[in-house]
């Protein structure tokens, strides 16, 4: 009985063979070309880019002809005259001394008084001037507003309560 029982559980040795090469699931078809109307727009964009590049090259060549030989061109940015720049720093800015030490000495600097309207202070300081090249403002603010002195500049106040001051600043 044991021998019959052993035959049931005894496994037969089966020969294992290597798997056959898998057949490809997909076949390559002939090359296809997809045509649509986007090609016209792409060609138009490329033509416009080429025209723009040609105009830019012509302009740069004309500018190069106008540059004198004693003026450095490669890798050199000529120094800009900062004596016509005006910097306004809100009184709430921390460590104003460190900020001042980093500014160019030719720049005109004004610190805004916290007790009065900063926009009006800027307008008063620039009133009647026409020699201003740039105005820089250092201040704190948030999304959609800027603190200047005792006032807050936003899209609402610039078009209502600061109209006159903005006009005077713009005239400078």
Ends: how far apart?
Answer: 116 Å
Give the tally of β-strands.
6
Sheet/helix structural class: alpha/beta
Please give the order of strands in the largest beta sheet.
2-1-3
Largest sheet, described in full?
3 strands, parallel
Q: Treating each run of at least 4 consecutive H or I residues as one helix, how many helices?
A: 6
Q: Which strand-content bin applies to the residues?
A: 15-25%
Mean pLDDT: 75
Categorize the overall geometry: elongated
Helix-residue proportion: 25-40%
Rg result = 38 Å
Contiguous uncertain segments of 5+ residues: 4-8
Order of helices and strands: HHEHEHEEEEHH
Features:
172 residues, elongated, alpha/beta, 38% helix, three-stranded antiparallel beta sheet, single chain
């Amino acid at each position: 009985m044991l021998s019959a029982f052993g035959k049931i559980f005894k496994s037969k040795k089966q020969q294992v063979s290597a798997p056959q090469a898998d057949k490809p699931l997909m076949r390559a078809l002939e090359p296809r070309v997809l045509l649509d109307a986007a090609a016209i727009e792409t060609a138009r964009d490329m033509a416009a880019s080429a025209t723009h590049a040609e105009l830019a090259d012509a302009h740069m060549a004309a500018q190069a002809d106008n540059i004198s030989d004693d003026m450095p061109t490669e890798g050199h940015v000529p120094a800009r005259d900062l004596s016509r720049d005006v910097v306004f720093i809100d009184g709430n800015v921390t460590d104003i001394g460190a900020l001042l030490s980093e500014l160019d000495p030719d720049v005109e600097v004004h610190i805004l008084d916290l007790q009065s309207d900063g926009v009006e202070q800027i307008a008063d300081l620039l009133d009647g001037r026409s020699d201003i090249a740039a105005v820089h403002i250092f201040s704190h603010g948030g999304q959609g507003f800027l603190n200047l002195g005792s006032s807050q500049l936003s899209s609402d106040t610039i078009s209502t309560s600061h109209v006159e001051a903005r006009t005077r600043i713009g005239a400078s």
